[in-house]
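Here is an idea for our session: we take a single protein and study its fold together. Which protein we use is up to you, so please pick one and set it down. Once you have written the record down, we can walk along the chain together:
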Amino acid sequence: MPRLLFFTTVLGAWLVGCQSTQNGAPPLSAKMAERARTVRHVEFAELEQGRSLFVSRCIECHTLPAISRYTAEEWPRLIDRMAKRASLKPDQRKAILAYVLTAREP
């Protein structure tokens, strides 16, 4: 029984750690997808790619910033600056920006 308790504790800590890593990256929702399609003319696949890149590439150098930390006007400049450091291709940069701007809208 102690072994099961240890395993459960470790698994729980790991799941909480994963969740806190992605707190800066809200999950995609149907509302976000609809807003991106109608307002930004961005398809769901591009949002998925943007979120995935945001979570995986940005955390290579620093913790994920909260989406609301920067304004919609600040994000493009910030992503441009970071894209060079992260060696992002133009379509990857565009996908991250589409995700971030869509995710920060109410």
